[in-house]
Amino acid sequence: MASALTLICAVVAGVAAGAAGTELTRGPSTDELRRASAEEVARRWWVWPAGRIFPETLAYSAEQGGEEQAARVGISPDTRCASALDRALRTALAKAGCQGVLRATYLDALQGVLVTVGVVAFPNEHAAVRARAALPHSGKPSPGLRALAFPGTVSDRFTSQGRQAGSVRQAGPYVVLTTAGQIDGRPARAVGQQRPGMFAFAPDLGERVLAVLSRPQMPDCGEAREWRC
């Protein structure tokens, strides 16, 4: 009886060891790969170089037709949520889990309009969707993303008082906002005839940044430099 019991225990142990070995040596499942992909996307705002998120130029559709290039003026080193957003939005976005805001300012090809693009990072897509719902949908720049100026450059007069248009887009764990104004810094109330068409390209810049930042990439277990499976 004792020898039979010993034999049964040995068989059970062998099966358990075999199952453990299979678990350790098997490849990742489809669900695991998807989770890894989502986690990689959510980390991009933190691990990617700023110049990869905000390239030196961004293409956009010109008001007159065709494609133009907006030139990057600068990138802010400050990633605090409170520094980048109007006070009226800070509480709602903090509750949604705002982890940080990356901002860069671009100058249009005609050198008359400045656009600040802001990437607001959240832990996951659900949090980003929640934040998007709390943001204004009117296209007005305030409350919204604060203008980003760089002293000694063409943007030095671009302040939040000079904002004239804004946009909001969301994909994956990111919300991207834009705020646009004229290079001379004049506020909207000082402009006699409104020309919304001159700022219509601003959302294009935000969408191009968002498309690259939120595009999923399935893990490649054969690429050791990028993935560990």
Reported for the largest beta sheet, the result is:
6 strands, antiparallel
Shape: globular
Q: Strand order within the widest sheet?
A: 1-2-3-4-6-5
Residue-averaged pLDDT: 84
Rg over alpha carbons: 25 Å
Distance between the termini: 46 Å
Percent range for helical residues?
25-40%
Q: What is the string of helix and strand elements?
A: HHHEEHHEEHEEH
- Indicate the proportion of strand residues: 15-25%
Low-pLDDT regions: 1-22
| Secondary-structure-derived class | alpha+beta
Number of strands: 6
**Count of discrete domains:** 1
Signal peptide: 1-19
Keywords: Signal
Q: Your description of this structure?
A:
- It is a single chain.
- With 229 residues, the chain is α+β, with helices and mostly antiparallel strands.
- It has one domain.
- 36% of the residues lie in helices and 21% in strands.
- It has 7 helices and 6 strands.
- Strands 1-2-3-4-6-5 form a 6-stranded antiparallel β-sheet.
- A hairpin with a 5-residue loop joins β1 and β2.
- The chain is globular.
- The two termini are 46 Å apart.
- The N terminus is likely disordered.
- Keywords: Signal.
